[in-house]
Design goal:
Blueprint (H helix, E strand, L loop, with lengths): L16 H10 L18 E7 L5 H11 L5 E4 L3 H13 L4 E4 L5 H12 L5 E4 L1 H4 L9 E4 L6 H8 L9 E7 L4 H11 L7
Parallel strand pairs: 1-6, 2-4, 2-5, 3-4, 5-6
Helix pairs in contact: 6-7
Length: about 200
């Protein structure tokens, strides 16, 4: 049995309404300490939007990675199947790529992440769930191949770059039907996105 006179600490990268409700249900007079502005992107992350056609999105991603000679990039998709399809496309275009998602075994995810960190794989394609808790030192680039359904997930995604005072870049490839969501992202990040 836990004593009534205990100290309970709750940590969260973001503090959404449901998390606040959960905290309020079991904490008495909680003190809130915010290290950064709530649900905001780090100032060290350069955020850019590329409007594009859905059919040419994969080609655009391959072009950006290849023409800029990016050596390490984490790419987010919404689905496991989308992650697999995109990984195959990138490999077909001559880029070393691996996917991590819930259908992969823990061993396969660990090997893919280790290869990515070692520089053996240039592109790691991930779903939001698989990427939770990923810590990649000095990750220079994050790409939203598909925008997340929830703006808060955008903050989690791009929070993989621009850590510990290092600069990073977050690129979002946005189709016409995703523009509504990009407005929510601008509000979430309190920043207008430059378009390329």
């Amino acid at each position: 049995m836990v004593s009534e006179e205990r100290q309970t600490l709750l940590y969260s990268a973001t503090f959404s309404g449901p998390i606040k409700k959960l905290a309020d249900s079991f904490l008495r007079s909680p003190e809130v300490i915010e290290v950064a502005r709530r649900n905001s992107a780090a100032e060290t992350v350069d955020q850019v939007v590329y409007p594009c056609d859905r059919v040419q999105k994969s080609e655009l991603l391959s072009f950006i990675i290849g023409s800029r000679n990016w050596q390490q990039v984490l790419v987010f998709t919404r689905t496991k199947h989308g992650a697999n399809r995109l990984t195959k496309h990138l490999q077909k275009d001559g880029l070393t790529a691996a996917a991590i998602h819930g259908n992969k075994s823990q061993g396969a995810r660990t090997r893919a992440l280790a290869a990515f960190k070692a520089g053996e794989v240039r592109v790691l394609v991930a779903t939001d769930i698989a990427a939770r808790g990923l810590d990649i030192d000095m990750l220079p680039h994050v790409v939203n191949f598909e925008l997340p359904n929830v703006a808060e997930d955008y903050v989690h995604r791009i929070g993989r770059t621009g850590r510990a005072g290092n600069e990073g870049q977050a690129v979002s490839l946005v189709c016409i039907d995703e523009k509504i969501c990009s407005g929510a992202l601008s509000a979430c990040s309190k920043k207008r996105f430059p378009k390329k």
